[in-house]
């Protein structure tokens, strides 16, 4: 807590607390997982490969910065984003860094552009094409995350099930895949596999958290 008598300086100090909370790759990754839905410390540790103690410390720092809420469910502590403003904050951070940090452009070219040369489809365009029946939308996240919330009409096809379920898709209809966010490789891999098998496929820009934060309809269950 800032003890400055200058109110503007005190406000800047509080903003800096939020900025410091974002200043670690593990905390950014935890926010990506929590943007899919509420999670326990145990689940987050498993998803990120962190120890329970390390995951808990990072989560507590994010909570102190006002980015997370927590509740107890029996013996488990469950964390969630305070609101969709956190997703918007992460989107602004990502877009600013992509425009101004050269190393990020190099990483995107290596891991994304190299696998997916087509421009992702925008959310508004996807809504229009889905309503017109021009695309099949697939959610390639784990089924639990699909149940937390998904694009209306999307089909749950976890990436590990994709190859076994190709017969479900009409080769004459474009497939649009989406996953956790702009840097999620699940959709990139799904699109690469589909194209290799002769399907027309693209990925959606961003992911489910950004879709929800944009105020677009969300289905659940």
Question: What can you see in these coordinates?
Answer:
With 221 residues, this protein is α/β, with parallel strands linked by helices. The protein folds into two domains: 7-86, Arc Repressor Mutant, subunit A (Orthogonal Bundle), CATH 1.10.10.10; 108-213, Rhodanese-like domain (Oxidized Rhodanese, domain 1, 3-Layer(aba) Sandwich), CATH 3.40.250.10. It contains ten helices and seven strands. The protein has helices spanning 7-21, 25-34, 41-48, 52-64, 85-100, 102-113, 123-131, 143-148, 185-196, 208-213; strands at residues 39-40, 68-73, 76-81, 135-139, 155-156, 174-178, 201-203. The strands form two sheets. A four-stranded parallel sheet has the order 5-4-6-7, sandwiched between helices. Strands 1-3-2 form a three-stranded antiparallel sheet. β2 and β3 (76-81) form a beta hairpin. α3 (41-48) packs across α4. The protein is globular, with a radius of gyration of 19 Å. It starts with 6 loop residues before the first helix and ends in an 8-residue tail after the last helix. The relative contact order is 0.12. The model has no long low-confidence stretch (mean pLDDT 93).
């Amino acid at each position: 807590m800032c003890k400055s008598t200058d109110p503007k300086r005190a406000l800047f100090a509080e903003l800096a607390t939020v900025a410091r909370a974002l200043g670690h790759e593990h905390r950014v990754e935890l926010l990506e997982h929590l943007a899919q839905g509420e999670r326990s410390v145990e689940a987050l540790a498993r998803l990120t490969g962190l120890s329970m103690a390390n995951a808990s410390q990072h989560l507590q720092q994010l909570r102190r910065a006002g980015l997370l809420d927590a509740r107890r469910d029996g013996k488990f502590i469950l964390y969630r984003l305070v609101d969709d403003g956190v997703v918007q904050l992460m989107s602004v951070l990502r877009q600013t860094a992509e425009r101004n940090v050269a190393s990020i452009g190099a990483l995107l070219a290596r891991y994304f552009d190299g696998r997916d040369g087509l421009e992702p489809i925008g959310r508004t365009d996807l809504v229009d094409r889905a309503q017109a029946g021009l695309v099949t939308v697939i959610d390639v996240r784990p089924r639990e995350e699909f149940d937390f919330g998904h694009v209306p009409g999307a089909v749950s096809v976890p990436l590990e099930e994709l190859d076994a379920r190709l017969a479900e898709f009409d080769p004459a209809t474009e497939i649009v895949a989406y996953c956790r966010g702009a840097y999620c490789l699940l959709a990139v891999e799904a699109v690469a596999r589909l194209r290799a098998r002769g399907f027309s496929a693209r990925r959606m820009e961003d992911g489910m958290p950004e879709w929800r934060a944009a105020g677009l309809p969300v289905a659940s269950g």
